[in-house]
Amino acid sequence: MGNPEGARIPEEQRLGPVLRRREQVQPGTTDQRLLDSEGDSEWVHTDPWRVMRIQSEFVEGFGALAELPSAISVFGSARTPVDAPEYEAGVQIGKALVEAGFAVITGGGPGAMEAANKGAREAKGVSVGLGIELPFESGLNQHVDIGVNFRYFFVRKTMFVKYAQGFVVLPGGLGTLDELFEALTLVQTGKVTRFPIVLFGTAYWGGLIDWLRDTVIAQGKASAKDLLLFHVTDDVDEAVDLVTKEVGR
């Protein structure tokens, strides 16, 4: 449905807050386009519609997680085998966090994430998984009690930070590094405060720390004090003590 045949197209058109003039004037009205059952369906792939989907993801995430107790987000590789030492460390960290009074939030996938969720569930705590729509992921692991799946990485990352009081980071790949540096940037810039970040596994993280110190800081791209934004340990109890102490528990 458009303008009646022969109707004059106005020089100026107001569509809600949007002003269109001259060649940018669109035929018809917003109501016409809404009620036109014969129109195409390409509108569901437009940016304005995506904004609504993004908004709905925030609403669903906020609604699902708003009543969580104090929580710690645990990150790590989806590729960590069940028989790896890091998997067992993830289980023990999940248990210890629950015993310290925290809920456990992970990305909800397999590997190290599954391990932390498993530990939290075995300790009878709150086990949360925030999944992401990926072509090669198979959904949330079986140890998740509260799960939310997201389309958009940036919405999911907001949830990781908003509903956690700190991060424990197990050995992981690019996704883990993305989440780690996102958190470090938020702390460094003062966007979040009292937010402990603990890297678990000195052998794994040592090379990255050396590069930060000997290259990034040495060349003036960061400050020496930025190395104080995180802690490194191989001890489960120390990892939990560090996050507990920094959040004032």
List the uncertain runs.
Answer: none
Tally of individual helices: 8
Question: Helix/strand/pairing class, anyone?
Answer: alpha/beta
General form: globular
Instruction: Characterize the main sheet.
Output: 7 strands, parallel
In percent, how much strand structure appears in the residues?
A: 15-25%
Main sheet: strand order = 6-5-4-3-7-8-9
Q: What is the total tally of β strands?
A: 9
Whole-number average pLDDT? 89
What sequence of helices (H) and strands (E) makes up the elements? EEHHEHEHEEHEHEHEH
Determine the fraction of residues in helical runs and give it as a percent range: 40-55%
Cα separation of the termini: 62 Å
| Spatial extent as radius of gyration | 24 Å
